[in-house]
Amino acid sequence: MEINLKDIAFDLDFHPSNQLVAAGLITGNLFLYRYAEDSEPQRVLKVRAHRESCRAVRFINEGRVILTGSPDCSILATDIETGSPVARLDNSHEKAVNRLVNLTETTIASGGDEGCIKVWDTRQQTCVNSFQVHEEYITDMTFEPDSMKLLATSGDGTLSVSNLRSNKVQTQSEFAEDEPLSIVIMKNGRKAICGTESGTMLLYSWGFFKDCSDRFTALSPNPVNALLKLDEERVIAGTENGLISLVGILPNRVIQPIAEHSEYPVERLAFSHDRKLLGSISHDSILKLWDIDNLLQDSGKKVGGKSAADSDDDDDDMDMDTDNIPPKSSKGTKRKNNGGSKGLDTTSNFFADL
């Protein structure tokens, strides 16, 4: 199933319970489509969300609202029924908003090009914390709910772990020559996997984030722009050469191309709410919806596996990293550190109307 967006898309997200998919475009537009198995997808919403491109898209509030982030430094909340703006924060970050990720039912995190990560609480209707840990733009983020740890990768070549319970940056990895572009948590929360600019996949053991414990080079030399966990031992990877591949990380390191989006880089991947469809976007202006069972018919397994929170291992290395942050890398231009983890940001009142 294909949706011609007519412009390049930077991000996509599926509704948490309905057959809806949202896409943020280079034009600043937000599109919302309804899809069904036996019919063509229908666009049900078009919103001019931002003056500049729409880089990040996430459903919140049980799917009633869509958040979008942009290089114009704003975050917009849009009602999906009416298309009307619910709230807009015009100065959410000092630089472009590059990533949005859901945390809990009432909190989300945003990552900016200045390297800052912010946590927004819809109940307190404001930004409740900032982590100025990175020197360069945030490339990806993922969240582990049991430990309340937010993992982020950055163009400065490092991975950070922020503890949302203590509101502190727990640790930051040493500088890696390969710029990390994507990250997922695997093996029931015992491993974090980063896709990089060189195509190498870096494997980190939970609690030992200073340096990677292993490397996987099967996708080299194509940058791994997007990673999506299929189960605890396999990920789906979107790479610069337009391929979508199934990668067995642990224990058997195998790679199997399962689809070709186009000749252009695959930018984002996402599962539908029922995990029957895989969505992919690239620079060809097409949003593709793939049937998961068809893609995996030769892999021998169906979609499944435990969540990262359902650890069944007795490893005792879960929190070995200390709160000490290693020296910043020398890569790129030094950026001003705004004091690391901050308290309540009283200047921001983004969710006042949610």
TrEMBL record:
Places the protein is found: Nucleus
Biased segments, Polar residues type: 344-354
GO annotation, cellular component aspect: nucleus
PROSITE patterns named among the record's database cross-references: WD_REPEATS_1, WD_REPEATS_2
Any Pfam family matching the protein: WDR55
Coiled-coil intervals: none
Region feature Disordered, mapped onto this chain: 301-354
Keywords, comma-separated and alphabetical: Developmental protein, Nucleus, Repeat, WD repeat
WD repeat residue intervals: 90-130, 131-172, 259-294
Main location: nucleus
InterPro entries from the UniProt entry: WD40/YVTN_repeat-like_dom_sf, WD40_repeat_CS, WD40_repeat_dom_sf, WD40_rpt, WDR55, WDR55/POC1
Acidic residues composition-biased segments: 310-322
Highest taxon of the lineage: Eukaryota
Entry's family note: Belongs to the WD repeat WDR55 family.
Name of this protein: WD repeat-containing protein 55
Organism: Deinandra increscens subsp. villosa
